[in-house]
From TrEMBL:
The lineage of its organism: Bacteria, Pseudomonadati, Bacteroidota, Flavobacteriia, Flavobacteriales. This is Glycosyltransferase WbuB. Residues 18-190 form the Glycosyltransferase subfamily 4-like N-terminal domain. One of its GO terms (molecular function) is hexosyltransferase activity. The chain crosses the membrane at residues 83-103, 109-126. Coiled coil: none annotated. It comes from Bizionia argentinensis JUB59.
Length: 387
């Protein structure tokens, strides 16, 4: 049996796209007869507090689904204070260094990036000729931080660029979740071995049935992180509600602002349901007409994994994020595209949508597209040939 280690900053019981992505990768490799171990912090995302059942622990090692999981201490924080956020990353890096010193590391290691500093720690301390380092790049930092307004082009930004280059240079194989990510890395290291590794989900396709026409308005649902990048609070304020109802699931930094906005505007048809387990959420999503996938600003290299998840659910999508995601929606006819950041165009797009666009036949077509083009196991089979 071949040993492989996955190092990630997010893993269940944490929720979200990053956690799901790394969980599916770990379980998929285990099914392919790899002996999988995972290093991850004590669960703390997205609230920035270690989950209650893990508090007071410096380290915990468990075996779950035949996967060995090492949960390491960190100073948990999701503060907007950059120093506290940096301290959180450095604390996890310190725990990683201690782990590397006192434990044997397999010859195949998959490192998740971002966070850049965590990836840098791994690439620095694990590099040696016989070890194959595989860097899984899900977002381009520091570019994404610059586009989100988190960074400015100063000395710190240039330092992060150097760290980014170091990580790519030391990787033996680079996985990128978008073509834009791989194109960006190729400008620096054109000879580097790379693989387009999309964030495909791994779950059984649900059985679709004809919906009951109980609501004359179009029901739009958002499910996911309520963070600054998604801009759900601004979306709540900008939507034209004349022909829609808006339903929100999830948690994050904007949660309280959204709850307060709904309370201050009881006449608007917005409902917030809180956070719901993923399996339950999949069942709930099938009750809505369409889902919206927004980004406050276009982020180079970003392709929301929701696209692939919702396709397999057979759920029509309204994409409002720009970039490569637009191309995927349009190419596979998965729904509608509105110009990122243009709320007037978004409302005009919504006005063009009709109830007859959500027939069972159309949903089944979307689901079959998801099954054919966004298959997790087919992609994993191609990836493991490169290991």
């Amino acid at each position: 049996m071949k040993d492989i280690l996955i190092i990630t900053s997010y893993f269940p019981p944490e929720t979200g796209a990053a956690s799901n992505r790394m969980f599916h990768l770990a379980t998929g490799l285990e099914k392919q007869k790899y002996k999988v171990s995972v290093i991850t912090p004590l669960p703390n995302y997205p609230k920035g507090q270690v989950f209650e059942s893990y508090r007071g622990k410096f380290k915990q090692t468990t075996t779950e689904n035949n996967i060995t999981i090492h949960r390491l201490w960190l100073y948990a924080s999701n503060s907007k204070n950059k120093i506290l956020r940096l301290l959180a990353m450095l604390s996890y890096s310190f725990s990683l260094i201690c782990f590397f010193i006192f434990n044997k590391t397999p010859n195949k290691v998959i490192v998740q990036s971002p966070p850049l500093l965590v990836a840098f720690t791994c690439m620095l301390f694990l590099r040696r000729k016989k070890r194959r380092l595989i860097l899984n790049v899900s977002d381009l930092w520091p570019i994404a931080g610059l586009e989100l307004g988190a960074f400015k082009r100063n000395f710190n930004y240039k330092l992060l660029e150097k760290i980014e280059r170091f990580n790519y240079h030391k990787a033996d194989l680079i996985l990128g979740q978008s073509k834009e990510i791989l194109a960006h890395i190729k400008t620096m290291f054109p000879e580097k071995e790379m693989f387009l590794y999309r964030n495909f989900p791994d779950f059984e396709l649900p059985t679709l049935s004809k919906q009951q026409e109980s609501n004359p308005k179009i029901t739009i649902v958002y499910a996911g992180l309520l963070g600054m990048a998604q801009g759900i609070y601004k979306l709540c304020k900008a939507l034209d509600y004349s022909n829609i109802t808006f339903h929100i699931y999830g948690g994050g930094a904007e949660k309280e602002k959204i709850i307060n906005f709904i309370a201050d505007n009881p006449n608007l048809p917005i409902t917030y349901y809180g956070e719901v387990p993923r399996e339950e959420l999949h069942k709930l999503l099938l009750n809505y007409d369409i889902t919206i996938i927004p980004l406050l600003n276009r982020i180079y290299g970003s392709v929301p994994s929701k696209i692939f998840e919702y396709a397999r659910l057979g759920l029509p999508m309204l994409y409002f994020g720009g970039g490569e995601g637009e191309t995927i929606i349009e190419k596979h006819q998965l729904g509608w595209v509105a110009h990122v950041g243009d709320y007037k165009n978004l409302n005009l797009t919504i006005q063009s949508i009709r109830k007859e666009d959500f027939t069972l036949k159309k949903r089944l077509e979307i689901q079959q597209i998801g099954k054919r083009y966004f298959d997790f196991n087919s992609q994993l089979n191609l990836l493991t040939k490169l290991f």
